[in-house]
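Late entry, NAP complex.
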Amino acid sequence: MQTALEAAILGPRGANPLVGSVLVDAHGRILATGHHRGAGTYHAERDCLTRALAAGVTDFSSTTLYTTLEPCTHYGRQPACTDLISDAGVRTVLVGARDPSPNGGGVEVLRTRGTEVVDGILREQCEKLNHRWNEAAGQQRIFVTVHLAQSIDARIAAADGTSQWITSETSREHTHMIRQRVDAILVGTNTVRTDDPRLTARDERGALTPAQPLRAVMGLSDVPEKAQLKQGRPEGEGWIHLRTRDPLKALKDLATTQHNGHPVKHVLVEGGQSVLSAFFAADLVDEIFLYTAPLILGSGRSSLADLGVTTLTEARRYTLDVADGGPTTIMDNDVCIHLQPEPKGAR
Ligand SMILES: NC(=O)c1ccc[n+]([C@@H]2O[C@H](COP(=O)([O-])OP(=O)(O)OC[C@H]3O[C@@H](n4cnc5c(N)ncnc54)[C@H](OP(=O)(O)O)[C@@H]3O)[C@@H](O)[C@H]2O)c1
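Prediction complete; structure with ligand written out below:
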């Protein structure tokens, strides 16, 4: 299960949990390892079984599958893992954590079919791996990733409001990679007025990638007629205006929006200060990519507004996230820190 956990953290966070799987033979030798690479791609179990087949495994009747999360019972963009496991004829399944989402229940399904299932192997580590995803799933809300590009004095814009470009080209390419994997990008009305961003996902050559995220603007004032993110199209065609200042309401509205053939399940909040602060204040941030560039702006918009924290005991605490490329990356002269909220009760 430790090997499955190490595989799981190679994947990206988002609409789906991080999951790793390992298939072993009757002697405990590893036949294949798999992990989930994000929404719409093979689940870890399928990745692992596919790799086992490619490696020449034809008889699964004496194999054991370790998986960090209970296999899903649900047909979505991918088939139910319980069916794939049953069809392959895997003898034993060892499960780490239970799936709190409506896709759970795989342990019981497999047992009814006669598969031997042992539940709760390294349960604590497996649950901790996806503690924020579990929380979001429990609240039936979409997963929130935050992008924050700032100077070393924690400012996201200069005094004249300009913020393009605080960070390096490599940092911006990284942001475009994150944009490609989310369902929606969210900014506030003032960022649209100030920066007029396109909010598109582009590859390293600057070309638009095939599946563009939904472009969402939050706030009560109108989105300027000529805003680039509209692309000259009416609302509902690639962009949406969420007429609210309440981040939870914005998430609920996004969750009922279909984009690219499925509901929005993962949003990238890109700012500015007011919108970011509202998400942090409401504890609705599940993952952070914090890009810090080596420049001092001295004055200008600070990254976050006053969140009402007055003592260290009230401080919002985050931990380095080892998943998806690790906790820190140098991007030209910038440092990108990958963070997640500290698990509740961690101190
Ligand atoms: N470096 C970066 O990564 C980055 C990214 C984005 C923006 N920026 C910079 O950030 C600056 C804009 O920051 P900002 O704070 O003014 O813009 P913002 O957060 O984009 O938009 C603020 C507006 O959003 C609406 N809003 C929605 N929810 C709100 C809430 N919970 N609380 C308060 N207002 C809410 C309000 O307008 P309504 O009256 O419409 O409700 C408010 O005036 C710009 O200079 C931009 O260049 C930097």
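The domain at 141-341 is CATH 3.40.430.10 (Dihydrofolate Reductase, subunit A). Will revisit in the morning.
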